[in-house]
Write a structure and sequence with these properties.
The complex is a heterodimer.
Chain A (H helix, E strand, L loop, with lengths): L22 H6 L3 H16 L2 H4 L5 H15 L22 H40 L4 H6 L1 H8 L7 H17 L7 H15 L6 H20 L5 H22 L6 H12 L21 H19 L3 H16 L4 H22 L3 H17 L5 H15 L2 H5 L13 H5 L7 E2 L2 H10 L12 H4 L2 H10 L5 H8 L3 E5 L3 H8 L3 E5 L3 E5 L1
Parallel strand pairs in A: 1-2
Antiparallel strand pairs in A: 2-4, 3-4
Helix pairs in contact in A: 2-5, 2-17, 4-5, 4-20, 5-8, 5-15, 5-17, 7-13, 7-15, 8-10, 8-15, 9-11, 10-11, 10-14, 13-14, 13-15, 14-15, 22-23
Chain B lengths: L1 H21 L1 H7 L6 E12 L5 E9 L3 E3 L1 E12 L7 E12 L3 E6 L2 E2 L5 E6 L2 E7 L5 E2 L3 E4 L5 E12 L4 E3 L2 E5 L6 H22 L1
Antiparallel strand pairs in B: 1-3, 1-5, 2-4, 4-13, 4-14, 5-12, 6-11, 6-14, 7-13, 8-9, 8-12, 9-10
Helix pairs in contact in B: 1-2
The chains are: A mainly alpha, B alpha+beta.
């Protein structure tokens, strides 16, 4: 069998390599990457409880409905049809490719199918992350030790939403950049350009491809100027390679239904935090929370990696890790990206530092680690991976698992929905963005909602109005009147439920969690 | 030697699988639930519902955003006599928290009042507890604990004054606390280890 490409292998004489294993063994025995991916999937399914947690917010609901609409009409929408609130803005359904995938899996197996899709994506992301460890020349044992902080940090934002698919593009980009050939070829332009084109239609994080290329280019360019002993010709060549990669990526990203307007939209949304409104996932992660030691460890390891990379004059890696750390500290959404990309880069820097150490026990340990890496190249476990995929599907189809797959009645108005469905079509229902997304899903988009999770479409105003009303802050009644709400779906223990009751709204439905009221 | 290496290789892979599925990350998810974290997202509506000849004035509402396991919040209320004799003021102050990792949350009041006859209630997540004033002017209320359950979310409470005499005041330091947090030294240890590692490597490389 062909041996896997491994940067560290270049330093090992061919004669020193053990004979390759028999092919059938290689197909059945997992390597490091597959072991980590399988363990990650087991964690995701059994401990993280993916069938329930992946649907922890209602965005998967409207994503699925959007995908269904695109499949039914054959058109990518430019305007919103889910809400009765006309914002006058264009709705950029820029994640349409991911939405189609979600809708197809939903057609196939319902929410079980969607959970299956994203569980596979999570497993694949862990597999790619460990491949990156090895491609970068990271230490075998260190990669293993980093598995726990990786999973703990990545799970912060495990949801059945397109951003999970974007992790695959991020990892693929870094894997490709790290294997960049000497000269920028047409093939490189095609791979980077078309890759970003697909990415731009899956998730809004596609500018990261260009950002990473520019960071690499800046690192190589600066290295040529900062250190006299740097190979300036080589650094210049690498700089040009990554500048051309950034250009290809930028051009490829224009292949989306909205062209350059999408870039403007995303840039404005990214640079102006006030447009995002009170959405928690965009806020910095609260490290004071209990049980965040693993996440802190991931951030600390990445920080150490950045310092060591700088010391090793590996400016491209230092810049990339620094950028990822900043991203992770700025927003909770950035933490999984920091872990998936930053930890392998940190491992590479730490490994190089350890290799330079003169401690005999340490050198022996590094030698053993290198031997294990060589053994690791002899298997891939592809057949086992295929069996594992089937096992995941079979487990998700267990009746007990199916019963609790999807949106939780503890969080969403699952039982109250029947009452909502019976309301007149012209009803204007006051409900949170979470409940709005859920109602959109249950009605397949037929029931017009007020707001859902598309803050980039609605803008921050209605989310603030929601908080004003639900907190019964001064002027809440005026807001209700101004929007013309006829019904409300609110939590039973909310003071709004009591306030609406006092204001004469009629109770249509009530359970332990939600109440449906009519004016 | 080769056999040993292979054994070590598979042992490492097995340890990796165990480490991910039963290690510290699993314990943080599947272990005992952490203490509820409380995020005070602000005050709700304030009302004055007494006789029109009096006005309950809420002052010094120090309910700015706080986050943690213990929140110390406060507000003052003053009964203003607008016209003619009047028995008392009444009103309410709403408050709400985002609670993560729900569990038990204790509410206690340690306020004072110039009106020995002042009375009212404190409500949180549907549980109501009356309070009154003792001979020294201190608010007396049995601290009560509420077991918030279900998903992370916003929980609501209300502080009610049912009787406060004209020209009298009430100070309301409210303490909201959950179970003690997980020990923080773990984080400090991790950070310290990182710094020590860098220093160790720096020295090794310099040699």
């Amino acid at each position: 069998m062909a041996r896997k490409r491994d940067r560290s292998a270049r330093t090992v004489p061919a004669a020193a390599l053990p004979p390759p294993a028999r092919p059938w063994v290689a197909w059945l025995v997992p390597d490091l990457s597959l072991t980590a991916a399988l363990a990650g999937v087991v964690f995701c399914l059994f401990i993280y409880d993916a069938p329930w947690h992946l649907f922890g917010d209602s965005d998967p609901g409207w994503h699925i409905v959007a995908g269904e609409r695109i499949l039914a009409t054959g058109r990518i929408p430019h305007s919103d049809s889910f809400s009765f609130l006309q914002t006058g803005h264009t709705w950029y359904a820029h994640e349409w490719l991911a939405e189609i995938a979600m809708a197809l899996f939903h057609r196939w197996q319902g929410l079980t199918g969607v959970a299956f899709l994203f569980t596979l994506a999570i497993g694949l992301a862990i597999w790619m992350c460990f491949r990156l460890h090895l491609v970068l020349g990271g230490d075998f044992f260190l990669a293993c030790l980093m598995a726990s902080p990786l999973v703990a940090t990545a799970r912060v934002h495990w949801l059945a939403r397109p951003h999970v698919l974007s992790y695959l593009f991020l990892l693929a980009t870094l894997l490709y950049f790290e294997r960049a050939p000497a000269r920028f070829r047409k093939r490189d332009a095609l791979v980077v350009g078309l890759g970003t084109a697909v990415w731009a239609n899956v998730h809004g994080s596609f500018p990261m491809a260009m950002a990473l290329a520019l960071l690499y280019a800046a690192g190589h360019a600066a290295r040529a100027f900062l250190w006299k002993d740097a190979d300036r010709a080589e650094e210049r060549r690498r700089t040009v390679w990554f500048l051309l990669a950034a250009l290809s990526s930028g051009l490829g990203s224009l292949l989306n239904p909205y062209g350059l307007a999408l870039h403007r939209h995303l840039l404005e949304f990214t640079l102006r935090p006030e447009l995002r409104g009170p959405i928690l996932e965009w806020e910095p992660y609260n490290f004071a929370r209990a049980g965040t030691e693993q996440i802190l460890a991931a951030a600390a390891l990445a920080g150490v990696g950045a310092l060591l990379a700088l010391r090793q004059r590996n400016l491209p890696h230092a810049l990339v890790i620094g950028f990822l750390v900043a991203l992770g500290l700025k927003s909770g959404r950035g933490l999984p990206v920091l872990a998936l990309l930053g930890l392998p880069l940190a491992n590479a820097a730490i490994t190089r530092a350890l290799e330079a150490a003169k401690s005999a026990p340490l050198r022996r340990l590094m030698g053993v680690s290198a031997e294990l890496r060589r053994l690791d190249r002899d298997q891939h476990g592809a057949a086992l991976a295929a069996l594992a995929v089937l096992a995941v599907l079979a487990w998700l189809h267990q009746p007990a698992v199916v019963a609790r797959t999807g949106f939780s009645p503890e969080t969403f108005p699952v039982a109250a929905y029947d009452t909502v469905a019976a309301l007149p079509e012209s009803s204007r229902i006051f409900a949170s963005s979470m409940d709005g997304g859920y109602i959109c899903y249950r009605s397949n988009g037929a029931r017009k909602i007020w707001i859902d999770g598309r803050v980039d479409y609605f803008g921050p105003a209605p989310y603030r109005q929601y908080l004003q009303v639900v907190r019964t802050e001064p002027g809440w009644e005026d807001t209700l009147r101004a929007v013309g709400f006829t019904h409300a779906v609110v939590e039973v223990r909310s003071p709004l439920a009591a306030a609406l009751d006092q204001a004469g709204w009629r109770q249509l439905y009530r359970d332990t969690r939600f109440v449906v009221l009519e004016q | 030697m080769k056999l040993n290496l292979k054994f070590l290789y598979f042992l490492t892979l097995a340890a990796l699988a165990m480490y991910v599925t039963t290690g510290p990350v699993s314990a943080s998810v599947a272990g005992p639930p952490p203490a509820p974290e409380i995020f005070n997202t602000g005050i709700g509506n304030t009302t004055s519902t007494g006789d029109p000849s009096t006005l309950l004035l809420w002052n010094s509402v120090a309910w700015d955003q706080q986050y943690g396991y213990t929140l110390n919040l406060s507000a003052d209320a003053q009964c203003i006599l607008l016209s003619g004799p009047d028995p008392s003021c009444a009103g309410s102050l709403g408050f709400y928290f985002s609670v993560f990792s729900p569990g038990n949350i204790a509410i206690s009041l340690v306020g004072t009042s110039s009106d020995p006859l002042a009375t009212g209630t404190a409500t949180f997540d549907g549980v109501t507890e009356p309070w009154s004033i003792d001979g020294d002017g201190n608010v007396i209320m049995a601290p009560f604990s509420v077991g918030v359950s279900g998903a992370d979310g916003v929980y609501f409470g209300q502080f009610n004054i049912t009787n406060l005499a004209p020209n009298q005041y009430l100070e309301l330091p409210v303490v909201v606390e959950s179970d003690p947090p997980a020990p923080e030294p773990g984080s400090a240890l991790l950070l310290g280890s990182g710094i020590a590692l860098v220093e160790f490597l720096r020295r090794k490389i310099r040699r």
